[in-house]
Amino acid sequence: MKYWLIVLPFLCAGLLVAADTSSVDAGAMDRSAQPCVDFYQYACGGWIARNPLPADRSRWGRFAELSDRTEKVLLDLLQSAALERPGRSDLDQKIGDYYQSCLDTAAINRKGISVLESELSRIRQMPSLDALPAELARLHDMGVRALFAFGPRADAKDSSRTIASLTQGGLSLPDREYYLKTDSKSEEIRRRFAQHVSRMFELAGDSSESAAARARVVLELETKLAEASSDRVSMRVPEKNYHILSRKELAALAPGIDWEAYFRASGAPQFDTLNVGQPDYFKQTAAILGAQPVDAWKTYLSYHLIREAASRLSDAFEREDFDFWNRYLGGAREQRPRASRCLQDVDRELGDLLGEKYVTSAFGPEAKARIGQLVDALVAALEKDINTLPWMGEDTRKAAVAKLREITRNIGYPNKWRDYSKTRIERDDYFGNFTRTAAVLHEIRMEHIGQPTEKDEWTNMTPPTVNAFYNSSTNSINFPAGILQWPFFDPQRDLAVNFGGIGSVIGHEMTHGFDDQGRKYDGAGNLRDWWTAADAAEFEKRAACVANEYSGFSPLPDVKLNGRLTLGENTADNGGVRVALMALMDTLKGREDQVAGFTPEQRFFLGFAQSFCENTAPEQVRLRSLTDPHSPGRFRVNGTVQNMPEFQKAFSCKAGQPMVSTNACRVW
């Protein structure tokens, strides 16, 4: 068993790189740095120096490197699928013609704003607020994220069934704080946002005076919605976002909205109760609706429609969209190549079709089975960790082990592909392809309401995605084929680096089942308190240590991380690395070979750290500090290792050095 990774066939021969991947990436290191002073710099300094931020990126790291290599494979598949030839499969026709319609900028520019005219006209002709619910439902059907979100969700307290759910939404800027903070940078962003909205309305045909006035309306309305919205930390607390109401109770809570009209127009099946995630938001929003004239809401809806469509409209709209969101707010200097943007759109809208094509060429069933063996090793290590925790009592320990054993594993690709047979894709109708696909996906989602939960369904990632995720309601770990490659995994590489790379990723996702959110769900995925009061208090004390530690990190001189926002990911990093190291040691069974001058433990930690080498634009750092539950790469690495005696032993660190925390935090 301890050599099983060595014989695993490579997942995608087309993605092999010229560099030597047999052990740690020595070229990525900065040997002038001291591992016990700044391990991230030691592991990644060479990579950072040799990989300046590309002009078309606001963030460039090892995840992006792998995504870029995967992109080349996907582009080859799409370009082949786009060739019109006899006998072309329905799958190839759909993904190929969608891709080709996106590349046809001459047709897109010729049509311009005309593709939106019928929808904008519908909004302009709304006679009163009574017409708003049906228009909202129509826009939601098209993928326009206005006012709130409605759709299916597993019942948090009975995960076997899928119920209807309402969630706050409708803001354009990335977070409520962008509207509410009073510092000079936030005020500047709001001014620039209003200018951007004004320019979008001008491009759509408004005069400069009218466009500026309408932009002020959008900002004022969205500020009111921001004031009503829950903050991101509150949104991470499951109990605060679970409120089962009847339809009559919803109508009484938020009487300013004709909910029956909205549900009819949404195409949802009949249901009696639903989860209202943030009741205060809907109560306040109903009052805001009644206090504003219908013309204000026409303006708001028009902007959200134009914003959603902008990247699929003519060059002028696309440039303005990029200039504000990606250049000014995000930090990128140039647009990504058109082919890359079209690929991303196919992946978003026809993800299972492209994913099916991808795994056929890049990820066979043997690879899927063998990666499962690595998961087995990590599960065994986490069970060992749980059984040896000194702070956990026996009742909670038994429940934790039971939950661990019930985790569903989805590896590589979903067991069931989404059905796109109703989707009509035309080679010369890019915007129409988007709206028709969005409508079909919306219909599929609505059909889930009232049905048993499909616990192996993938809803937020496609097989080529370089990422992974844990789902609390299904108690599942999910590893797309895209991430199961170098630098996270390479079958020709030694065990230590593989366990530091993909092993830490697997351990991270499993630990999410036991972070500050995941721990509140049982093995069936139900929101249920299975902890003794004493053990819950011990957990919260240890979690607070992690939150306080990361709140002290500053990615920019005037920016601090929010340790409560990033708590789940930081807990998973710390726990996942510890569990992966345990799994490595159990696999090696005492074999302590040196490779390239490093012990297995040292290679393990370097493999972990080198997964997070990155360069990021300051604008992107600022944005992510408010919105991203993940810490920047430097703090994911240093924040984890400074809590680990195993790291300090591996590199002979001494008390008082920066990578030796004076108040080491440990949950798992």
Q: What is the structure about, briefly put?
A:
The chain is of the alpha/beta class. It has helices at 39-50, 62-81, 90-103, 105-111, 117-124, 132-141, 177-180, 184-203, 208-228, 232-235, 247-253, 259-266, 279-291, 294-309, 315-328, 338-349, 351-362, 365-388, 394-405, 430-448, 495-511, 533-551, 567-588, 600-609, 618-627, 633-641, 645-650; strands spanning 59-61, 148-155, 158-168, 244-246, 273-276, 408-412, 469-471, 476-480, 614-616. The chain has 27 helices and nine strands.
Which structural traits does this protein have?
4-stranded mixed β-sheet, 9 strands, 27 helices, single chain, Collagenase (Catalytic Domain), Neutral endopeptidase, domain 2, 3-stranded mixed β-sheet, alpha/beta, disordered N terminus, globular
List the helices and strands and how they pair.
Blueprint: H1 39-50, E1 59-61, H2 62-81, H3 90-103, H4 105-111, H5 117-124, H6 132-141, E2 148-155, E3 158-168, H7 177-180, H8 184-203, H9 208-228, H10 232-235, E4 244-246, H11 247-253, H12 259-266, E5 273-276, H13 279-291, H14 294-309, H15 315-328, H16 338-349, H17 351-362, H18 365-388, H19 394-405, E6 408-412, H20 430-448, E7 469-471, E8 476-480, H21 495-511, H22 533-551, H23 567-588, H24 600-609, E9 614-616, H25 618-627, H26 633-641, H27 645-650
Helix pairs in contact: 2-3, 3-16, 5-14, 6-12, 8-9, 8-15, 9-13, 9-14, 16-17, 18-19, 18-21, 18-23, 21-23, 21-24, 23-26
